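[audit] Reproducing an earlier prediction to check determinism. Same input, same settings, fresh worker. If the tokens differ from the archived copy the diff job will pick it up downstream; this log only records the rerun itself.
[audit] input (177 residues):
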Amino acid sequence: MSDTQMTLTSLHIRDFDAQTDSIEALTRMLHKSYRKLAEMGFRFLASHQDTQMTLKRMENARCLVGLQNGEIIATILYYPPAFAKGAPWYDQPHVAKFGQFAVDPEYRRLGIGHELIRRVEEMAIQDGAEELALDTAEGAHHLIYYYTARGYRLVAYTQWNLTNYPSVLMSKKLTCP
């Protein structure tokens, strides 16, 4: 099976393991995944961050990686309510958040992103969160559509110091299974 014919059954999702996983490979995959956004003029941190920043962003977060044949092809960071900080919406005790979400462009439209978000939603429910939130560029209409289609709604706007665009904060009410 070629890489582009991968199915979800061959995808392995697990926590990032600093002993066996390469932070350099993760950072390269982030750059590749965010390249199109950078070409659109959005300066997402993940489009250019170095490995030290990748590690820093993983602090207080749970980093999931999606692997195909041992290669990192997707990732998402999950911050439980106690660590979902940075904007008034995130600072609420019932809100968890996710970020640094990426799927290698060669593996998009296979359901990998959906599966990563589903797993993070389950983690948030287990942590007692009532809402799961994220932020993205206000002008990244395709991303806003992607999250809206998954039940996320606009709740606030913010401007981060490290980006060149206003961000929309989106959140989803969580329900126990």
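[audit] rerun output stored. Observation attached for the diff report: The radius of gyration is 15 Å.
[audit] end
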